[in-house]
Specification:
The protein is mainly alpha-helical and 391 residues long. Helix content is 49%, strand content 6%. The protein contains 18 helices and seven strands. The protein is globular and about 70 Å long.
Length: 391
């Protein structure tokens, strides 16, 4: 139902940048400016004062934001850490327990249950570990911080709208350090736009209602562009003479082209010949190989980490019946310090690798592949100590 406060929220996030609160500076003044914006947007003073009462800057949130070293792990090691037999067994059990809601999701959105189960497992261990950070404090802390204010500022006012609707408690609502809430960890704006009352109690309760959380997550994936009843990732085998320059998440060919080059599935069948796909070699041409179909790109709208996304997509295939990964025998990679050194060298050559963070993300991979081709290395986007030394 469209309420006056929702109209206020939509008007508020549409304000020009000059009218929005600036990041940084005195924290109390920053909060005061947010309150003034909420009033300007049409929220009444009593609601605004109650919502922002007692908010605090949370140093632990900033510490967590700066310490994401787990994403420096290579794909095989990272996936082994996240995908345990226990998580697979529990996933199967949850699939059976909530079979009715998964059937609704599959019929409504055409999203395989394995996709939602994988997110549910990774984000909160099937709802068991949802985070104990005060959500409003986390959002305001990250909006005040000048690293990603454009992402987090709108979330504050989305939370205000949820509060006005009775679905958010500024003092008691808790979640992840980055402000996500519930079993599948959704930000307030995503809840506002995609929340579904799947259990029919009149509210969207993502922390306590698995049907609400799963259906809301499915609706969000659909809104982000998920193609119904279509694949997302498939493990494949590559020939020894493959032209590695054609690999990489940003290079997409028809499945028929990959098939003509000798790409074969480890199990099942490849997608239809005209479907676009990218060939991803997360640890080079001697490691595992995947064809990533268009739905794989939607994962990056949920999370920006290449390693996390690939692991979540792979786990979804396992939960949907795929066999265990063939890890191959990849060449040794770089440790965190070496990866930062590599990123600095690539940056000095004019490449955009993003932050010097020691994480082998999409932009670093692309730069690595170009340098491998220039220097005569196998152009598989997997940096080795030999490449680092040559640079």
């Amino acid at each position: 139902m469209l309420r006056n406060s929702l109209i206020a929220f939509l008007a508020l996030i549409a304000l020009p940048i000059s009218a929005q609160a600036q990041c940084g500076g005195n924290f109390t003044s920053f909060v005061t400016s947010l309150k003034e914006e909420a009033l300007t947007g049409g929220y009444d003073r009593a609601t605004v004062n109650r919502f922002f009462k007692g908010v605090q800057k949370d140093a632990a949130v900033l510490k967590a934001d700066r310490a994401q070293g787990v994403f420096q792990k290579p794909f095989v090691e990272f996936s082994r850490r996240l995908i345990s037999q226990n998580r697979i067994d529990r996933g199967k059990a949850m699939s059976q327990k909530y079979d009715a809601i998964f059937r609704r999701i599959e019929n409504t959105y055409g999203i395989d249950r394995g996709v939602l189960l994988a997110f549910w497992a990774f984000e909160t261990d099937y709802g068991a570990v949802q985070g104990n950070f005060n959500t409003l404090n986390a959002l305001i802390t990250l909006a005040h911080d000048c690293r990603r204010p454009d992402l987090f500022r709108p979330q504050i006012f989305a939370a205000l709208e949820l509060y006005a609707d009775g679905d958010f408690d500024p003092r008691k609502t808790t979640g992840a350090w980055a402000g996500e809430i519930g079993m599948v960890q959704m930000l307030p704006k995503d809840i506002l736009e995609n929340g579904v009352d799947a259990d029919g109690d009149g509210h969207v309760r993502l922390k306590t209602s698995a049907p609400d959380a799963l259906m809301s997550g499915a609706k969000m994936l659909s809104s982000l562009g998920w193609t119904a009843d279509a694949p997302w990732l498939q493990e494949v085998t590559i020939p020894a003479d493959l032209d590695l320059r054609k690999t990489g998440a940003y290079r997409k060919l028809n499945v028929s082209d990959w098939k003509a080059m000798g790409i074969t599935p480890r199990s099942g069948r490849l997608a239809a010949p005209g479907v676009k796909a990218a060939l991803i070699l997360p640890q080079g041409h001697k490691g595992p190989a995947f064809l990533a179909y268009p739905n794989f790109d939607v994962y990056f709208e949920w999370n920006q980490s290449f390693t996390y996304v690939l692991t979540a997509a792979y786990f979804a295939t396992r939960l949907s019946g795929a066999e265990r990964l063939d890890v191959g025998s990849p060449d040794p990679g770089l440790n965190g310090a070496q990866m930062k050194q590599l990123q600095r060298k690539l940056q000095a050559k004019g490449y955009d690798v993003g932050d010097i963070d020691g994480i082998l993300g999409a932009r670093t991979r692309r730069a690595v592949q170009k340098e491998q081709e220039r220097l005569g290395f196998p152009a598989d986007a997997w940096p080795t100590p030999a490449l680092l030394a040559k640079l």
